[in-house]
């Protein structure tokens, strides 16, 4: 099986910083696209940032310049550095990855995996 586990959420004051981490584990053959999504109360889940295995990145337009996504392919981890946080950044942040996993019958086609989410609260 495959697991994605996020960490690093918490309460921070406006203007502060947080660093979220996502660690993938299990019978993983390869990880393609990884990304962070967030869902604020009573809102749809939205893309925050994504990164390919080659390191190409994509950000939500409103977050460019404040958030930085990175990954370590060898360690199967991904991070999101969030700076100058604003109250509107308050949400549950989810790690997502497109993973091919090993099974008893070989390598399976790519599937979407999600972490359980980590809560970020920006408030004074």
Description of the molecule:
This protein has about 120 residues and is mainly β. The chain is about 0% helix and about 60% strand. It has strands spanning about 1-5, 10, 20-25, 30-40, 45-50, 55-60, 65-70, 75-80, 90-105, 105, 110-115, 120. The radius of gyration is 15 Å and the shape is elongated.
Q: First CA to last CA: what distance?
A: 40 Å
Strand content range = over 45%
Number of strands: 12
Query: Mean pLDDT, nearest integer?
Result: 96
- What is the N-to-C order of secondary-structure elements (H for helix, E for strand)? EEEEEEEEEEEE
Extract low-pLDDT stretches. Answer: none
Characterize the overall form.
elongated
Query: Major sheet: size, sense and barrel closure?
Result: 8 strands, mixed
State the helical fraction. under 10%
Per DSSP, the total helix count is: 0
Structural class, from helix and strand content? Answer: mainly beta
Computed over alpha carbons, the radius of gyration is 15 Å
Question: What's the topology here?
Answer:
Elements: E1 2-7, E2 10-12, E3 18-26, E4 28-39, E5 46-51, E6 57-59, E7 67-72, E8 77-82, E9 91-103, E10 106-107, E11 111-114, E12 118-122
């Amino acid at each position: 099986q495959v697991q994605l586990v996020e960490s690093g959420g918490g309460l921070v004051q406006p203007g502060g910083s947080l660093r979220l981490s996502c660690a993938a584990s299990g019978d993983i053959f390869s990880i393609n696209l990884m990304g962070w999504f967030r869902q604020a109360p009573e809102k749809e889940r939205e893309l925050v940032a994504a990164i390919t295995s080659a390191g190409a990145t994509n950000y939500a337009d409103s977050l460019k310049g404040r958030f930085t996504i990175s990954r370590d392919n060898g360690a199967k981890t991904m991070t999101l550095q969030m700076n100058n946080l604003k109250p509107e950044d308050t949400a549950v942040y989810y790690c997502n990855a497109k993973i091919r996993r090993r099974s008893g019958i070989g390598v399976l086609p790519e599937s979407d995996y999600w972490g359980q989410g980590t809560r970020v609260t920006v408030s004074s």
